[in-house]
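Exercise 3.2. Students should predict the tertiary structure of the chain below and write it as structure tokens, then compare their answer with the key that follows.

Predict this chain's 3D structure.
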Amino acid sequence: MWDCLLVMSRRFAETASRKADVGSAITWLKSHGTKRTRDGMARYGLPSDKAFGVPVGTIQQLARRLGKDHALAIALWKTGWYEARMLASFVDEPARVTGAQMDQWCAEFDNWGICDTACFHLFDRTPHAWRKITLWSRRRKEFEKRAAFALLACMALHDKTGDDEPYVRSLALVERAAADERNFVMKGVSWALRAVGRRNRALHAAAIDVARRLAASPMTSSRWIGKDALRELNGAVVLRRLARS
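Answer key:
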């Protein structure tokens, strides 16, 4: 009985402490927000109805002060505030992120800022990343589907030692999704195709083949993605870097 009471007491204390941490973080974020930044967010298609207007660099300053804390990240996400969710992506611990958590957060993506930040700073470091790329590429909602290709792009950028095979397979997902004409899906698909093509010479050749097929497509979105990718992948900067590799 006493052991049970001790466990309950510890859990109560931890819960109270976590609520205090979240409250302090929200207070800090609110105090660093400005109307000017909030108005600027709206111009870039970011939600301002539940945002304080805090620049990303300032949010990252707080993240460095707080350090990595999985439980705090979960609690911050639940508040629904834009900056709190950005902060959650910075402080969460990739090794403790579950597939279910990724699905839950993805289902709540309602803008490109949160989607891309979660993928770039957190999800691509988890062991579930490749599985979620395939799964989310079939999602219907715009930002959930974008998440698949934002995550693929982030993997291509950050994964320095991975085999080519999963990236080659991912090009089929890119080609299939290229027909989606929604703005944030199109841009996510293009980002992924360009990122895969920059990894090495073999993947560059494979991505160029896909980009050429898309550029010749009768579909407006596919043509745009193909031409966008060809412009970058055939550019001097990419070609020089690949020549040195």
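Discussion points: Confidence is low (pLDDT under 50) at residues 4-13. DSSP finds 14 helices and no strands in the chain.
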